[in-house]
């Protein structure tokens, strides 16, 4: 009897063949192939997750053993129930690292060469130069909140440009390419000295609305805030107020509490924000990068029952 790997999206046929090479008992399937309850009882692994799968796959004695998340963040998944039914979880941390780091570097260059101001001026046929819009990368104190694979890739870029990447993580442990690292408890102190604050943290109880009115008031009025982590880490209302009242100079936001951001939201009317529609993680050759992680894990899982890369703690959520 076949064991199913249920995916929330199709993958190229070459990866079906690679799964068969690892173990021919496993078969890659999409949901529309599971025509009855008996088929669902063959699902041992999923790639991705859909909310309605919960009723089919999470119960006492479930055959489901492992969920491989498509994303790095897993806050949207039923972690407590995975734990209750002994379902392992891994994420795709690292797959999007280059794409998001490239996105962030593009923002930093545009911001510090006055290109955002130039775009706004062009809309009004205004020939204007503001000397305050310009800075050298090497003079910036960039605070990267989250020193995982994305943060490390960005820090390596900034290190190359002789900038000063400063890292925030749970305990302040040293990380390659960061000039300094501090614990999350020192976030406010370090943010008050930063020219740029970049959030790349996962969403947890501790990071929900971490960035709020108090935080923005603590930042330099000349500073930039960027979020490519999770939308609910930022209070949208407080961010709008901080930008409107120029408590911070600029923001670049790729993820929001509500997506899509409503067309009538006042953030759209501000000129000191870049709004992007959750695109920072768009990754060329995604299937190849993702499957490299999944197939390595699959081989180990079948042979030893272990996940060797990116296993997620169901308690902490990362």
From TrEMBL:
Organism superkingdom: Bacteria
Keyword flag Oxidoreductase = yes
Residues of the D-isomer specific 2-hydroxyacid dehydrogenase catalytic domain:
28-306
Q: Which UniProt keywords apply?
A: NAD, Oxidoreductase
Q: Which residues are in the D-isomer specific 2-hydroxyacid dehydrogenase NAD-binding domain?
A: 106-280
* Pfam annotation, one family: 2-Hacid_dh
InterPro entries from the xrefs? D-isomer_2_OHA_DH_cat_dom, D-isomer_DH_NAD-bd, NAD(P)-bd_dom_sf
Family the UniProt entry places it in = Belongs to the D-isomer specific 2-hydroxyacid dehydrogenase family.
Q: What is this protein called?
A: Phosphoglycerate dehydrogenase
Q: Lineage in the entry?
A: Bacteria, Bacillati, Bacillota, Bacilli, Lactobacillales
């Amino acid at each position: 009897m076949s064991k199913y790997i249920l995916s929330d999206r199709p993958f190229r046929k070459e990866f079906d063949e690679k799964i068969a090479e690892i173990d021919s008992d496993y078969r890659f399937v999409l949901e529309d192939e599971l025509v009855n309850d008996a088929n669902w009882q063959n699902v041992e692994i999923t790639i991705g997750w859909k909310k309605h799968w919960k009723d089919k796959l999470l119960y006492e004695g479930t055959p489901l053993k492992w969920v491989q998340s498509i994303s790095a963040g897993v806050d949207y998944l039923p972690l407590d129930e995975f734990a209750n039914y002994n379902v392992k979880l891994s994420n795709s941390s690292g797959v999007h690292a280059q794409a998001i780091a490239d996105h962030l570097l593009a923002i930093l260059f545009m911001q510090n060469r006055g290109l955002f101001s130039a775009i706004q001026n062009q809309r009004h046929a205004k020939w204007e130069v503001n000397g305050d819009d310009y800075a050298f990368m090497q003079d910036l104190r960039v605070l990267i909140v989250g020193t995982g694979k994305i943060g490390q890739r960005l820090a390596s870029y900034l290190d190359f440009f002789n900038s000063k990447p400063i890292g925030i993580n749970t305990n302040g442990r040293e990380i390659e390419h960061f000039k300094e690292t501090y614990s999350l408890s020192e976030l406010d102190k370090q943010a008050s000295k930063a020219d740029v604050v970049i959030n790349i943290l996962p969403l947890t109880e501790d990071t929900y609305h971490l960035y709020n009115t108090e935080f923005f008031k603590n930042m330099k009025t000349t500073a930039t805030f960027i979020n490519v982590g999770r939308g609910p880490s930022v209070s949208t209302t407080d961010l709008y107020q901080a930008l409107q009242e120029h408590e911070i100079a600029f923001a670049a936001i790729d993820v929001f509490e509500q997506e899509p951001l409503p067309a009538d939201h006042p953030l759209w009317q501000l000129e000191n924000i870049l709004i992007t529609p959750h695109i920072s993680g768009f990754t060329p050759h995604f299937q190849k990068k993702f499957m490299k992680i999944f197939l390595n894990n699959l081989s180990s899982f079948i042979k030893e029952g272990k996940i060797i890369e990116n296993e997620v703690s169901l308690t902490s959520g990362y």
